[in-house]
Amino acid sequence: MISRVENPDALAREARRYGFLPREVDPTLDLHAEIGRLKREKRAVILAHYYQDSEIQDLADFVGDSLQLARAAQQTEAQLIVFAGVHFMAETAKILNPDRKVVLPDLNAGCSLSDSCPAPLFAAFKAQYPDHVVVSYINCSAELKALSDVIVTSSNAVAIVESFPPDQPIIFAPDRNLGAYLNKKTGRNMRLWNGACMVHEIFSYKKIRDLMAQHPEAQLIAHPECEEPVLELAHFIGSTSALLRYVVESPVRQLIVATEPGILHQMRRQAPHKELIAAPSNQACACNNCPHMKLNTLEKLYVCLLYEQPELQLPADLIEAARRPIDRMLTLSQGIK
Ligand code: 13P
Ligand code: SF4
């Protein structure tokens, strides 16, 4: 049972130790109503990524992909930002709002792609190519952002890469799949860091091909974090929000969706008459849930809002250094959906 009389410093220490506050939540509580009440009382904003559980998406003030969430974080006036997503996304919100309090339901919600590019290793790699600019995918740590010239998301990456002169040498980090896709799309030869997302690399080329043969009318739509053979099968490639738009706007009735299945919730809401099939993985199960995103639960969201812990904090000099490439991205991607 939750007791509200607790020492704030002890709470913060405990939240840091576990990554969340391990509190038993009364199972008879109406969590939707309680979260709504706390949010209004505290004038907090809840931002959620499309890969969150549907019940968290339904409670959020704003649901979006990485670019949309960065913009929402830039524009919000709330003093308390509750970020239902993964660590690097909450970091971006903090970098854009150094004076606000940013909390997330579970600090352990990391990202395999971000982890695949530790900043010290990347700094040594970057030092070998002093004439290169560094374009980094937003799915990376604040330390890596601080080593970058500009940040991109899957929504704006093509436009931002193309904003550099064709002869400008570029390092792209950390996603080798998105990097290879961008090289193909823009005709560049960016030097790629060898990182990947565990969720998007797990799709089975063979099972998808078999599924397409069984459903000849269906179109495959895929996120550019998928491996090249899967992308080659795709009728449409795009960021999470672009995939959602495609489902809503295209006349195609049956679609195989190769990205994290959390997005299916919004696709089904916005295009209820379409038949959506989650692309199969190379594991025995058919699910590609991101284990990091799914660490956030309704109970942890409630506890986090109630205690305003765990709080995401970053040193001021890191915030300053990481902010420059994020601001540059936001300027360069004006007008991009
Ligand atoms: P977008 O939100 O840019 O589509 O990226 C997907 C993703 O993997 C987020 O972690
Ligand atoms: Fe990271 Fe992939 Fe999960 Fe996105 S889906 S948070 S890139 S592991």
Could you describe the 3D structure shown?
- The structure is a single chain.
- This protein has 337 residues and is an alpha/beta fold.
- The chain folds into three domains: 8-109 and 292-315, NadA-like (Rossmann fold, 3-Layer(aba) Sandwich), CATH 3.40.50; 113-197, Rossmann fold (3-Layer(aba) Sandwich); 203-278, 3-Layer(aba) Sandwich (Rossmann fold).
- It has helices at residues 8-18, 31-42, 54-59, 66-75, 87-96, 112-115, 119-127, 142-146, 157-162, 176-186, 205-214, 228-233, 240-249, 264-270, 298-307, 316-332, and strands at residues 44-49, 62-64, 80-84, 101-103, 133-137, 150-152, 170-173, 191-192, 219-222, 236-237, 254-258, 275-278.
- A four-stranded parallel sheet has the order 2-1-3-4, with helices on both faces. A four-stranded parallel sheet has the order 6-5-7-8.
- Helix 5 links the parallel strand 3 (80-84) and strand 4.
- Helix 2 (31-42) packs parallel to helix 15, helix 4 (66-75) runs parallel beside helix 5 (87-96) and helix 5 (87-96) packs across helix 16 (316-332).
- It is globular, with a radius of gyration of 20 Å.
- It starts with 7 loop residues before the first helix and ends in a 5-residue tail after the last helix.
- The model has no long low-confidence stretch (mean pLDDT 95).
- The chain binds 1,3-dihydroxyacetonephosphate and iron/sulfur cluster.
- 1,3-dihydroxyacetonephosphate is lined by residues 65-66, 139, 153-155, 197, 225, 239-240.
